[in-house]
Task: structure prediction
Amino acid sequence: MSITGTLIIQMIVFLILVGFTMKFVWPPIATALDERAKKIAEGLAAADKAKSELSAANQRVESELAKTRQETAALLADAERRAQAIVEEAKGRATEEGNKIIAAARVEAEQQAVKAREALREQVAALAVRGAEQILRKEVNPAVHAELLGRLQTEL
Result:
């Protein structure tokens, strides 16, 4: 055999091998590569979708946090206003109670002053009777002179 015959046989075997490979081996490899490329594309799309969903979720979380902060600030302000109102109300009640206590003390002081005046009048009347008794050197009968003593007491 000559080199040309061997070369032609090798070419024919090579073409048969290429034909066999193209018909039986290449389609499953191409299908596997296409499926792999499809899975990779789906994975990338899912990753992009998850990334966008994550950013949307982060935005929702931030907006909820901002809303919660605003609500908390509003609640704190409301609580401070209520506390201030309670303090003012307590001050008002304390002032009112203090005024009542002062008024009661004034009334009591006036009553005690009236009692003291009455007691002083009685003592002065008794002293006047004793003084008159000593001056006149007579015994004065309080029952007989009750009207005179009453007038003297009212004059004092």
